[in-house]
Amino acid sequence: MFLLPFLVLTFSLVFVLSHQTALLAPITKDHTTHQYTIQAHLKTPLQPTKLLLHLGASFSWLDCYQNYTSSTFSHVPCNSSLCSSLHSLACSNYYSPPGPDPACANDTCALFPENPLTRKATLTNALLDSLALPTTDGSTQLSQLGGLVPDFLFSCSQTSLLQGLAKGVAGLAALGRSNFSLPVQVSRSLSLPRYFALCLSGSRSLPGPVFLGSSGPYFFNSKIDLSKSLIYTPLILNPVGSTVITYYLQPSDEYFIGLTLIKVNGKAVPINASLLTVDENGFGGTKISTVDPYTVLETSIYKAFNDLFVKEALGLNLTVTANTVEPFGVCYAGKDIMSTRVGPAVPTVDLVMQSDDVFWRVFGSNSMVRIERSDADVWCLGFVDGGPHARTSVVIGGHQLEDNLLQFDLESKRLGFSSSILVKGTTCANFNFTSTSSKRIVK
Ligand SMILES: *[C@@H]1O[C@H](CO)[C@@H](O)[C@H](O)[C@H]1NC(C)=O
Ligand SMILES: *[C@@H]1O[C@H](CO)[C@@H](O)[C@H](O)[C@H]1NC(C)=O
Ligand SMILES: *[C@@H]1O[C@H](CO)[C@@H](O)[C@H](O)[C@H]1NC(C)=O
Ligand SMILES: *[C@@H]1O[C@H](CO)[C@@H](O)[C@H](O)[C@H]1NC(C)=O
Ligand SMILES: *[C@@H]1O[C@H](CO)[C@@H](O)[C@H](O)[C@H]1NC(C)=O
Ligand SMILES: *[C@@H]1O[C@H](CO)[C@@H](O)[C@H](O)[C@H]1NC(C)=O
Ligand SMILES: *[C@@H]1O[C@H](CO)[C@@H](O)[C@H](O)[C@H]1NC(C)=O
């Protein structure tokens, strides 16, 4: 009888928390590989784990062959509804050694985790274990491990799948539009709205946040809630995925958007419009990628874009250098370019979506890359040639995403974008992760 009011109180507290609190994770850039990694806590007891951030992947994966010690992992039986909703193509039937083994069990649902950089895949089994992330109210980190998903589903992988990933990375965090991506599992497990928002930081020391299960607010150490000033464009479904192991008739879990025009200084780049639509085989169109360091353009678009940019920059008295720095095609002497609060003063680039007034503005901080070494001191146009047969015509890459807030609204299937938040006097690195000390200064 004494327990009853206590229980009611506990339940109402849980209710209140789940409706005001979202989850959060820090994303750090590895400047050697240009990869973005997310930190999560996994297993029991919880262990900090670095995972490659991949916006387009269907499910997360983790090396299970090194250091997998946990008291809470469990396998997924082949003949289970969970295994069938995973669209698993195989069932593992290993003879288990004595005692539970994460990477080896009889009758266990099998998956093909993939490394997006090497495009290698392995056959391993699905696993369930605990995942914990910080909680947030949108302006600061409330707790480091307060958001617990007790039965997070991912795939094991062999250690060899880690080849090409940054030092210390133990797997991959999938943020794709599938039912088993990290944000969708977080929202399902904690009854949070199916939204996540990403703000990549290019800083060498300070991370940027990803907010999971929150449609806002998003504060970056300023009075401005960035969720209030987003512009929206529909997310487009690509009917054919391009995974290494092809899942028959499975649509892509990557995020495609309807780019219709690229402008430089307000002038349109001449582009064959059919390259910008996704055809029935999944070719063409525009996607967003966190595993491509720079935006990749199909060759004819790349050439037309470079030509117009060079012409418009000439109008600002900027003359290209004789030599360029790989992998870029257009560079300017560092001393020739003045800087502004949105980066080097160069022609602005607009990515125009469904109508003329829906455009993503790219200023110098996102269009140009500074290269300072013994043999060069230049600013280069940070777009690269994807070749004449590129599967996707425009792949918006990491450098163009930094210090922009992107909100993925999986309920209404739309993307909200802020354009450069430097315009608002803040940066992605300004999010207040620390609950007490550590000052963060607007750069
Ligand atoms: C495994 O864990 C030990 C102790 O935590 C650590 O010293 C070692 O580097 C880890 N090995 C790998 C491959 O992660
Ligand atoms: C599991 O297998 C049994 C026998 O093969 C079958 O009757 C049952 O429907 C299966 N269960 C599921 C969840 O697929
Ligand atoms: C493996 O699982 C299958 C199907 O459940 C069962 O028939 C078989 O006996 C199991 N083998 C071992 C070694 O446990
Ligand atoms: C994802 O889950 C929803 C709701 O459970 C279901 O209707 C849909 O078919 C699932 N999608 C895939 C690709 O399995
Ligand atoms: C435009 O691109 C499509 C698809 O690549 C091609 O079939 C067509 O010939 C191109 N049109 C022009 C005018 O180049
Ligand atoms: C470019 O340089 C010329 C000659 O030095 C000068 O007359 C002109 O005003 C400059 N234009 C701009 C946009 O700076
Ligand atoms: C970060 O948030 C904490 C409260 O959670 C606050 O004490 C601290 O002053 C904040 N830091 C900055 C730089 O605003």
From TrEMBL:
Compartments, record wording: Secreted, Extracellular space
Boundaries of every Peptidase A1 domain copy: 36-418
Pfam families recorded: TAXi_C (PF14541), TAXi_N (PF14543)
Molecular function per GO: aspartic-type endopeptidase activity
CDD domains, sorted: xylanase_inhibitor_I_like
Gene Ontology biological process terms from the UniProt entry: proteolysis
Family: Belongs to the peptidase A1 family.
PANTHER family named among the record's database cross-references: ASPARTIC PROTEINASE GIP1-RELATED, ASPARTYL PROTEASE-RELATED
Protein name: Peptidase A1 domain-containing protein
Originating organism: Quercus lobata
